[in-house]
Design brief:
The protein is α+β, with helices and mostly antiparallel strands. The chain folds into two domains: about 90 residues, no CATH class; about 90 residues, Immunoglobulin-like, CATH 2.60.40. About 30% of the residues lie in helices and about 35% in strands. A hairpin with a 5-residue loop joins β4 and β5. The longest helix has about 40 residues. The protein starts with a helix and ends with a strand. The relative contact order is 0.15.
Length: about 220
């Protein structure tokens, strides 16, 4: 193996290890190797200038990638901090998340919730269930298009309705249409998670990633 091949192999190895080697360490190792090989090259067959430039370009690429990674990590950290500051404004507000619990108004007389349909349905039914799982009322919503829909329920005759839930059944002809129950919940605090980013702590649902919030109310 000639000097150029040896240098190329060494630089390729340095490139593959760039993720775990610091910028300063990579550059220093390369320069030491380059000087040593230049000192020991065959005087009758010196390294071609173009090939030397190519090898220098490779180590510059490694260094550039490391600099880019450092910059991206710094930007990501700043983005998460900004996201947390913006998320603080959500504390005390209601958000729509996946869930089947009914949200009562301050008087406990009116409840609201919603659902999302994966496709159009010609018959949609909402059942209200008490704490024991028994159906206490059934509402026929008729035909609805795909997407999110909201509904209200008169809870004035049910003083213990704070623990009530609901169930949605949707069909198109004889085929079932997938429905996702949606509930209102209140943001108590916000925080950051390394894998999911901004996380909201909700009054009834607990910790929920911000990306799983369907709407801000």
């Amino acid at each position: 193996m000639n000097v150029t091949d040896t240098l190329s192999t060494s630089v390729t190895s340095a490139t593959s290890a760039a993720g775990s080697t610091s910028e300063a360490g990579s550059a220093d190792s390369f320069l030491k190797l380059l000087v040593t090989q230049l000192q020991n090259q065959d005087p009758l067959n010196p390294m071609d200038n173009a090939e030397l430039t190519s090898q220098l370009a490779q180590i510059n690429t490694v260094t550039g990638i490391e600099n880019l990674n450092t910059s991206v990590q710094g930007l990501n950290s700043q983005f998460l901090q900004m996201q947390a500051l913006q998320g603080a404004s959500l504390i005390g507000r209601d958000v729509t998340v996946t869930g089947n619990q009914l949200a009562l108004d301050a008087r406990g007389a009116q409840a609201e919730a919603g659902f999302a349909l994966s496709g159009p349905a010609d018959a949609v039914q909402v059942e209200i269930l008490n704490g024991a799982g028994q159906v206490v009322e059934t509402m026929q919503m008729g035909a609805l298009e795909s997407g999110r829909h909201a509904f209200d329920w008169d809870a004035s005759g049910h003083p213990d309705a704070s623990g009530y839930t609901f169930r949605v059944t949707a069909t198109l002809g004889a085929a079932a249409v997938t429905s996702t129950p949606l509930m209102l919940d209140r943001v108590q605090s916000v925080g950051l998670d390394g894998s999911t980013g901004l996380v909201l702590t909700l009054e009834r649902s607990g910790a929920v990633p911000y990306g799983e919030v369907h709407a801000l109310n």
